[in-house]
Amino acid sequence: MQKESWNSMSIILVTLSFLFVFISQNVFSAPSSRHLCLPEQRDALLEFKNEFEIGELSRYCYSVGQPKTESWVNNNDCCSWDGVACDTKSGEVVELDLHCSRLHGMLHSNSKLFRIQSLRSLDISRNDLSGQIPSSLGNLSHLTFLHLDGNNLVGEIPSSLGNLSHLTHLILGVNRLVGEIPSSLGNLSHLTYLYLGINRLVGEIPSSFGSLNNLYYLDVGYNKLSGSFPRTLLNLTKLSVLSLSDNQFTGTLPSSLFTLPSLESLDLGNNQFNATLELGNISSSSKLKQLRLGNNNFIGSIPISISKLANLEGLDLSYLNTQGPVDLNIFSHLKSLEDLDISHLNTTTTIDLNAILSVLKRLVVLDLSGNHVSAINKISVSGPHSQSITGLLLSGCGITEFPEFLRTEHEIFYLNISNNRIKGQVPGWLWTLPELYDVDLSRNSLTGFERSTKHRLSNVPKPSMEFLLGSNNNFSGNIPSFLCMFKSLRVLDLSNNNFNGSIPRCMGNFIKRSLLVLKLGDNQLSGKMPDIFLSGRNLTSLNVAHNQLVGKLPRSLSSCSSLEVLNVEHNRINDTFPFWLESLQKLQVLALHSNEFHGSLQYHPKVASWFPQLRIIDISNNSFTGTLPSDFFMYWSAMSLEGNSSELKYIGGDYRFYQESLVLMNKGVELTYPMILTLLNAIDISGNKLQGEIPKSIGLVKNLIVLNLSSNSFSGNIPSSLANLTKLESLDLSDNKLSGQIPPALGSPHKSIQDYSFSQPAHRSDTARDTVSDPRFLVF
Ligand SMILES: *[C@@H]1O[C@H](CO)[C@@H](O)[C@H](O)[C@H]1NC(C)=O
Ligand SMILES: *[C@@H]1O[C@H](CO)[C@@H](O)[C@H](O)[C@H]1NC(C)=O
Ligand SMILES: *[C@@H]1O[C@H](CO)[C@@H](O)[C@H](O)[C@H]1NC(C)=O
Ligand SMILES: *[C@@H]1O[C@H](CO)[C@@H](O)[C@H](O)[C@H]1NC(C)=O
Ligand SMILES: *[C@@H]1O[C@H](CO)[C@@H](O)[C@H](O)[C@H]1NC(C)=O
Ligand SMILES: *[C@@H]1O[C@H](CO)[C@@H](O)[C@H](O)[C@H]1NC(C)=O
Ligand SMILES: *[C@@H]1O[C@H](CO)[C@@H](O)[C@H](O)[C@H]1NC(C)=O
Ligand SMILES: *[C@@H]1O[C@H](CO)[C@@H](O)[C@H](O)[C@H]1NC(C)=O
Ligand SMILES: *[C@@H]1O[C@H](CO)[C@@H](O)[C@H](O)[C@H]1NC(C)=O
Ligand SMILES: *[C@@H]1O[C@H](CO)[C@@H](O)[C@H](O)[C@H]1NC(C)=O
Ligand SMILES: *[C@@H]1O[C@H](CO)[C@@H](O)[C@H](O)[C@H]1NC(C)=O
Ligand SMILES: *[C@@H]1O[C@H](CO)[C@@H](O)[C@H](O)[C@H]1NC(C)=O
């Protein structure tokens, strides 16, 4: 399966594993009804409560309950408070369970919490704790359980936690912890469960971990750990679950790893382990159920001994660089296998889908992507396969037909057959599969959608479909209106096809509910954009570029308060500048390039809300007229304020389907930015009929990378304030009536002058160094 989808999947798994721990922990100590709690502990708890505000429910929580601390009031027994448990004999507070309690704030090193020395279990997971983990936590010397996962904790793991000698469970995952794992944790000889995954930890696993003799669960996945496989872990005979996934480990694997006596789940996926894969002398009594070695740099054939792992339920060998034939009979002994990922094996062997499905009868998820696959339609409908397929990934398998056998796979929810050569129509039965949720048909030669399912669909109360990707096919005709039945759609991508006709009004059905991303670009859609965006509150990206749309921009777009990207370039939209979008708090990209926009850019913005996040504005090749107001550049706050480079990320980078690309003129060349970096700030107003002076306020958009004012009728002097734009990589002022000097700072040697294009269009190929010394180009 694809990297990103594993990401989200294992985050879900991880979250579930927290849940498991909570359940097992709750049997620990029941609240006492006899003992009144100690007054000083009650006071400490009340003060602790007041150290936090009640904020939003954490995204890692499922149920919305009352925050537990709300039941904490001064004049009753604190042992009866929500989340508090006391020792039945002494009345001391021994357990504090405040997970999902909406606590917002910092856990300070002088928190009153640390007065409660009797604590044996502390769970403040899945709140909104910020700041560092205070090292004074190491004073709570009776702790056996410590759960701080799912917060926003930063800084290093304090080495003082190694003093908590009774600790059995230490759970610090899903935070933003940095630095190395302190070797003192190796002192925690009672530790059984250690979860540090999804942080930013670096360095190696401390060798002291070899003395964690009782450890059965160790997960440090999704960090930046490096080095070779930590051999010290081979000492841990009780280890049952080990995940080092999604780090930067390299080198070979010790073959004795696979003979660790208790190992049931091993995940080393998404690292840089290399060399050949050796499983050593594994015995058929191995308990291994999950073996994930995918997305590494292993070379060579699949080890034959893998066939001894009779208990295996999940196997990921993706990206194993076999460089030759593969013997699939190896898998025939793995009778328990439910989930098999052998995508991208770089093998010369054609994989027979029918053979796999008829041997591995319990398989529910199969990923053969990137291998050549045959026998797509040789699978007998009443066939020998006993289990229903839930996920099938056949991306880039060279298949030419739609996999018909899926017609009876009623439990399938994920289908990825992208990047093949499938021709013909998408069969109507596909839409009747009741669980289907995520379908990728993109990059094929499909020509249409078979009808006849409309009837059945309208009977489905809540259609499951959320992700439907069909870009880069050969679909033509109208966009089928039955798609509007998918009222839960979150992503619909039909770009790069030959659809014509208008955008169906019925799309308002899902726009107003759930839609996040709508991509209809590069088709032949015509007519007006329908005014269907009212209450499209979840819409983050709308792309209808490169069509033949006419009329005005629908005013209902102003209610799309989550909109980040609006791209309507290369249409025939005839409208004035959409000042009315100014209050969209999240809009980052506005691309109106090559339309029939006209009128003036003179406007007095409501300064408080003027396009607060806009970073890229491309309104080039339209018919805007008049002069720019002198304060035109004053209010683009996202482009003016000093950027925080630690926040560097791609727009939509958190979201696997939401990969934006945009074409911008940079240095005189059309450059496609595959994902838009949030630090790319660009203003392109070239190819209009703007006149007058370039406002001096241009000097205020200090973080601009690309500025293109070419092919207008700007006159007067080039403003010296341009010198303030020290980050500029591309400047084009050509084809105007400008005079004067290039501000000296722009030509100063610390910048690469080649990056500036001052040339007339006719001289695009001249190097900038020439043009600067060539008097022809000093008059713009
Ligand atoms: C708690 O620990 C810190 C250092 O980790 C220490 O300075 C402090 O004295 C300790 N406080 C108590 C109450 O033990
Ligand atoms: C607690 O841990 C710190 C840092 O590891 C150490 O300096 C200190 O001596 C320890 N205190 C106790 C009481 O073990
Ligand atoms: C705890 O760990 C540290 C670092 O690994 C070590 O120096 C120290 O001696 C250990 N303390 C105890 C009490 O084991
Ligand atoms: C392995 O464990 C033994 C005790 O079980 C211990 O003596 C030894 O130091 C450990 N080795 C490593 C590398 O930690
Ligand atoms: C494995 O990767 C390391 C680090 O990149 C490299 O030095 C080493 O040569 C590689 N080994 C093999 C067998 O490719
Ligand atoms: C493999 O292990 C088995 C017992 O588990 C043993 O009998 C056999 O000799 C071992 N083979 C090798 C090559 O070490
Ligand atoms: C795939 O295998 C061939 C040999 O069969 C090798 O030449 C090629 O480099 C391999 N491809 C990759 C991406 O490693
Ligand atoms: C389908 O698989 C291809 C290749 O692995 C991948 O690039 C694409 O993102 C997948 N589609 C979805 C929707 O996950
Ligand atoms: C796409 O369909 C058109 C007819 O609608 C046809 O002329 C063209 O060859 C098809 N292109 C591909 C790549 O199948
Ligand atoms: C859409 O937004 C609403 C709030 O406006 C929210 O409750 C809902 O969960 C969102 N739906 C999706 C699929 O994100
Ligand atoms: C835009 O629409 C107006 C009428 O609203 C019309 O007069 C004008 O010609 C149109 N512009 C273009 C370029 O078609
Ligand atoms: C450059 O920026 C500074 C600091 O914001 C500002 O005071 C100055 O006026 C700007 N210079 C020009 C020429 O705009």
UniProtKB/TrEMBL annotation:
CC per GO annotation: plasma membrane
Location of the Disease resistance R13L4/SHOC-2-like LRR domain: 112-348
Region (Disordered): 744-780
SUPFAM superfamilies noted in UniProt: L domain-like (SSF52058), RNI-like (SSF52047)
Cellular localisation: Cell membrane
Key word Transmembrane present: yes
Keywords, sorted A to Z: Cell membrane, Glycoprotein, Leucine-rich repeat, Membrane, Receptor, Repeat, Signal, Transmembrane, Transmembrane helix
Stretch forming the signal peptide: 1-29
InterPro entries, per the entry: Leu-rich_rpt (IPR001611), Leu-rich_rpt_typical-subtyp (IPR003591), LRR_dom_sf (IPR032675), LRR_N_plant-typ (IPR013210), LRR_R13L4/SHOC2-like (IPR055414), RLP23-like (IPR046956)
SMART domains assigned: LRR_SD22, LRR_TYP
Superkingdom, taxonomy of origin: Eukaryota
Pfam families: LRR_1, LRR_14, LRR_8, LRRNT_2
Domain Leucine-rich repeat-containing N-terminal plant-type: 39-87
Ranges of Basic and acidic residues composition bias in the record: 763-773
Main location (coarse class): membrane
Bilayer topology annotation: Single-pass type I membrane protein
UniProt similarity note: Belongs to the RLP family.
This protein's name: Uncharacterized protein
Lineage: Eukaryota, Viridiplantae, Streptophyta, Embryophyta, Tracheophyta
